[in-house]
Amino acid sequence: MEHNYPSMRGRICLVTGATSGIGKATALGLARQGATVVMVGRNQAKSEAARQEIQAASGNPEIDLLLADLASQASIRQLAATFLERYEHLHVLINNAGVFLTKRTLTVDGQEMTFAVNHLAPFLLTHLLLDRLKASTPARIVNVCSGSHYTGHIKLEDMQLERGYNVWRAYAQSKLAMLLCSYKLARQLEGSGVTLNCLNPGFISTNIGMGNVGPKLQTGAKVLLSRLGSSPEKGAQTSFYLAMSPEVEQMNGKYLDKLVLKQSSKDSYDQALQEHVWKESARLVNLSDSEMALS
């Protein structure tokens, strides 16, 4: 399906995980449409190389880079503060960054890493930038989720997965948590001029999870993924659609699977569960009453 998107000149777009994979492809696509793209990366050298590559490939000089470790709440807060100081508007926020870890690892804040990066980080960043989004309407929030959420379960007594950790359980739980809180926030945003939608990009050949295997296995894993998975460029198509298409300007609180509107899991629509996960997430990221009031 081909889409002709309008010019994004004058629109400011923030993309997390923008230095590789789907995030990099998304940043490039937005840049080609003329947007001011603010890339978020962690490694200075890798991130700067990606920024220069996107700038050259798009012919768009308005490509900025902000460094942040999304496993650190202090770093996320600094990221938001730097963005708010530098930019008066934010028209599109794409929460794309994610991790896939075979071993249970804790962040500097003492949180289980997969849950922290895949869910708590976008939850916190979105709240910190929400006031700026509301002041820039029409504005859009795009959360990159995963079809794995269908197998996800939230155990409220063990969201940190201290008992029975495995990579699939951790990843699926984190993506279900993202959906639960996205739907609750989307309801709160009705009528504000800010929309929030989620997507599954499909099975994509990216570097996610490559840190879990040694150098010798990485080559074989990349070959296998390239054969089984779609390209990052194809994976970014749904992000483009939700970020730029006039067709979905009024769409809010929906889930798209590779450009197709679908129902997410039954659990994801459970408003009582949404409330539980929302409150626990706010507690874990230490959102103040005033920060929560923005939503």
Describe the protein in words:
There is one protein chain. By secondary structure, this protein is an alpha/beta fold. The protein has a single domain, classed as Rossmann fold (3-Layer(aba) Sandwich). Helix content is 44%, strand content 13%. It has ten helices and eight strands. It has helices at 21-32, 44-58, 73-86, 113-134, 167-189, 215-228, 232-235, 237-244, 271-284, 289-293; strands spanning 12-16, 36-41, 63-67, 92-95, 139-144, 194-200, 255-257, 260-262. The chain has an eight-stranded mixed sheet with strand order 3-2-1-4-5-6-7-8, with helices on both faces. The protein is globular and about 50 Å long.
Sheet of most strands: 8 strands, mixed
CATH architecture: 3-Layer(aba) Sandwich
Q: Note the total helix count.
A: 10
Relative helix content: 40-55%
Kindly report the average pLDDT value: 91
Strand arrangement in the largest pleated sheet: 3-2-1-4-5-6-7-8
**Percentage of β-strand residues:** 5-15%
Overall form: globular
SSE class: alpha/beta
Distance between the termini: 35 Å
Number of strands: 8
Q: What order do the SSEs take from the amino end to the carboxyl end, as H and E?
A: EHEHEHEHEHEHHHEEHH
- The CATH class is identified as Alpha Beta
